[in-house]
Amino acid sequence: MNNPFLIGIISWLLPGVGHLIQRRLARGLIIGVVIWTMFIIAIISGGAYYPGFDFKDGALLYLLNIFARFGNGLGAFISFFLSASPPPKVASWATFEYGGRFLEIAGLLNYLAVLDAVDIYLGRKK
Fold it and tell me: How far is it, in rounded angstroms, from Cα 80 to Cα 100?
């Protein structure tokens, strides 16, 4: 692969795969397992249904929530799809807010993994 943008997009869409493509097996597996585990825990905990903030509550907080959730790549599409039809009384779950935060942190962590994969490709990091 001779395109850093393609490495970045693949790394964003499927966490850990950008490192695997560059033959960084241990790093790719660790990143992939950690991010996907956080994502799965977030979904099971009801994080996809956590509303975060509305635009009326503060544009900056709302945009930060969307930006963080979008960082999950393929997981972002899954979480946005799941959030369209929440189960009844999901807000009463004890893990509801924790799941929302896990979802956001997984997305932000994936952004860092994308930057790491692109830096490795460009030779800035070993």
Answer: 12
**Confidence (pTM):** 0.86
DSSP state of 47: G
Q: Check: CB of residue 50 under 8 Å from CB of residue 104.
A: no
Closest by CA to 79, choosing from 48, 45, 47, 39, is 48
- Average pLDDT over every residue of 63-86: 86
Q: Is the pLDDT of residue 80 over 90?
A: no
Q: To the nearest 10°, the Cα dihedral for 6, 9, 15, 17?
A: -20
Alpha carbons 98 and 46: distance in angstroms, whole number? 8
Angle between helices 96-122 and 74-82 (to 10 degrees): 160
* Rounded distance between C-alpha atoms, residue 25 and residue 91, angstroms: 39
Residues 86-100 as b or e (16 or more Cβ within 10 Å = b): eeeeeeebeebebbb
Residue 69, token pair as written in the block: 């959730």
pLDDT digits (tens, 9 = 90+) for 37-62: 999 998 888 777 666 556 677 777 77
